[in-house]
Amino acid sequence: MIEIDDVRDLVDPLVIAAFEGWNDAAESASSVIDHLIDVWDADVIGAIDPEDFYDFQMNRPIVGVDETGHRRITWPTTQIAVASPPGLGRDVILIRGIEPNMRWRQFCAELLAACDELGGALVVTLGALLADTPHTRPLPVTGSATEPELLDRLKLEHSTYEGPTGIVGVFQDACTRLDIPAVSYWAAVPHYVAQPPCPKATLALLGQLEDLLECSIPLGDLPEEARAWERGVDELAEEEEDIADYVRALEETRDTADLPEASGEAIAREFERYLKRRNQGD
Fold first, then answer.
1. Mean predicted confidence (pLDDT) in 162-175
2. What phi and psi values does residue 135 have, to the nearest 5 degrees?
3. Sorted alphabetically, which Gene3D superfamilies does this protein's record hold (predicted)?
């Protein structure tokens, strides 16, 4: 079991989780949790024992020097943090970790038991995958949910994916088996720029969380980092004619497939987020 530090009773907490590895193209999903821990000033209250779940030859410990000058080893693990976002009216449990190498079912069971102990009633998992999507267009995010009420409210669908899965899929299945309402969002990352980071995909996932939570999330430097990332990929494409041709082909496919009404809905959602941020800053 995960040992949880003493923490006050949380207010209607929901869980947001992401894991490095197969589920985390360009580290886009785990970067969301890193960002939320920072802007919401979250406190780490527990961590899973890595000995039972990680192969340390695959996920090696890191040796470094702490603030007192002593050399210490940091072991790969999955941490639980809690935050009280301003203006949200509820607390958030943040899970940030690494896809385990073994005992996935036990891993999920221990995390969900800790969430249950803290009162978590809704789980949101985040992922990112490599896809045939152009970097010059808004990066698509697909969402699914396990409960009919969530499907209707968030305008999502039941997942129809069939094939290999990672810890995010197993975690979502564990929620279903325990009758825990769960939502999953996946951002598409252009496969021709797969190396991390991809701040544009991180921003896309944060936008979905804003819609879910019905509140604005401080974005900090992410918008400028996303613009710089896009400019960098533009320069790469200019230097490689094959990549430039491929990007243009992806743009044509995307522009043809996008329905005007879908684009209008996306613009409306983004405008609503802008207004919320502006009002919050007043």
1. 94
2. -70, -15
3. PAC-like subunit
Mean pLDDT of the chain: 90
> Which of 126, 206, 212, 116 is CA-nearest to residue 168?
126
Residue type, 197: P
CA dist., res. 261 & res. 160, Å (int) = 24
* CA dist 7 → 40, 46, 68 (Å): 16, 11, 27
> Beta 79-83 vs 92-98: how paired, if at all?
antiparallel
Name the residue with higher pLDDT: 271 or 21: 21
Name the pTM for this structure.
Answer: 0.89
Whole-angstrom distance, CA of residue 122 vs CA of residue 14: 5
Reported as a pLDDT band with limits 50, 70 and 90, residue 160 is confident
Query: Tokens for 216?
Result: 């604005």
Report the distance separating Cα 121 and Cα 228, nearest Å: 38
Residues linked to residue 18 through DSSP beta bridges, in sequence order: 96
Strands of the sheet containing 43-47, edge to edge, are 43-47, 79-83, 92-98, 14-20, 122-131, 182-190, 141-145
Q: Topology of domain 3-220, per CATH?
A: Rossmann fold (3.40.50)
pLDDT of residue 26: 97
Q: How far is CA 68 from the centre of its chain?
A: 33
Number of H helices, E strands in the chain: 8, 9
The rounded distance, in Å, linking the Cα atoms of 268 and 264 is 6
| Token representation of residue 135 | 């970097």
Question: How many other C-beta atoms lie within 10 A of the C-beta of residue 24?
Answer: 25
DSSP 140: P
Which of these ranges, 9-13, 15-19, 145-149, has the smallest mean pLDDT?
A: 145-149
Q: Which two tokens stand for residue 70?
A: 């002593």
* Span 221-275, pLDDT tens digits: 999 999 999 999 999 888 888 889 999 999 998 888 764 444 555 555 555 655 5
